[in-house]
Automatic annotation (TrEMBL):
SUPFAM superfamilies listed in its UniProt record: Outer arm dynein light chain 1 (SSF52075)
The UniProt record lists the keyword Nucleotide-binding: no
InterPro entries in UniProt: Leu-rich_rpt, LRC72, LRR_dom_sf, U2A'_phosphoprotein32A_C
Keywords: Repeat
Record domain U2A'/phosphoprotein 32 family A C-terminal: where: 133-151
Repeat found in the keyword field: yes
Listed name of the protein: Leucine-rich repeat-containing protein 72
Highest taxon of the lineage: Eukaryota
Length: 273
């Protein structure tokens, strides 16, 4: 064990000598990859360390990462890690984390350690036992919404919606159908004078007998496809969006320097389904 610790210290000192770094505060990059290291000495003296490569070694714990709060990129792939609990939670600036090709088994604990890192956008966890769990990818996407690239594959909007539906169905039902605005009470139908109203002035809606109060008691096809569109629209919430032209509003400086009467703001409101 002493030999492994000594090898880690020598590797760090050798890297500092190669880079010609004499002060600890000047260390922002540390490359210790592919040296067969089993142990790394504490790196707490490198307060400004941002980029750390320890991949392709035999590391089994991360106790050396205690006060490296500036770390943004951490490469730990191809090691012998079985658990990272308590090792990365305090590193809130992380943006890129590579943990693939290890022996991580606990999916929930591993993801919990990475939660709350709003800057984390790239994460690799493949070739770990935890990646064999059912719905592994959707679980990670739901738990770590900031991640944009997971296991070398971009996270799609469809995957985010599937993850939301799978792990938070109540919120999914409330969020997914709504884009923006608020619900309002109004009658169904095109506004007076609209093109759609003029195009079909006397058209009536023919509803199949199997349709009742927005729910189908049996699958009855519509004779006219446009009737199906209108019936589906009846089940949607009416939305209202209001906006104001703020370019016509005087600033504080203009109010102070110019004595002119302000015109009342005109709010434009649009209702739609």
């Amino acid at each position: 064990m002493a030999a492994a610790a000594r090898a880690g210290v020598q590797a760090v000192e050798k890297q500092l000598k190669i880079c010609g770094i004499k002060r600890n505060t000047d260390v922002s990059i540390l490359y210790l990859a592919g040296q067969g290291l089993r142990s790394i000495p504490s790196l707490s003296r490198f307060h400004r360390l941002r980029y750390l490569w320890i991949n392709n070694n035999k590391i089994q714990d991360l106790t050396f990462l205690t006060k490296n709060y500036c770390l943004t990129e951490l490469y730990l792939n191809h090691n012998e890690l079985t658990d990272i609990s308590g090792a990365l939670k305090h590193l809130c600036a992380l943006q890129i984390v590579f943990l693939h090709d290890n022996q991580l088994q606990k999916l929930v604990e591993t993801v919990k350690e990475l939660k709350g890192k709003i800057s984390l956008h790239t994460l690799n966890l493949f070739h770990n036992p935890l990646a064999q769990d059912a719905d592994y990818r959707l679980y990670v996407i739901h738990a770590l919404p900031s991640v944009q690239l997971l296991d070398r594959k971009a996270v799609t909007q469809r995957e985010r919606e599937s993850a939301l539906y799978l792990y938070n169905q109540e919120r999914s039902c409330a969020v997914l159908p709504i884009a923006f605005g608020k619900r309002v009470s109004t009658i169904l139908g095109p506004p007076l004078g609209s093109r759609r109203a003029r195009a079909q002035p006397g058209r009536s809606l023919t509803v199949p007998s199997g349709w009742k109060s927005g729910n189908y008691t049996e699958k009855v096809p519509f004779e006219n496809p446009e009737d199906a569109v209108l019936v589906r629209a009846m089940t949607r919430s009416v939305m209202e969006f209001s906006c104001v032209d703020w370019n016509k509003v005087a600033t504080c400086q203009e109010r102070r320097l110019e004595n002119k009467v302000e015109e009342p703001l005109k709010k434009v409101t649009i209702q739609f389904r």
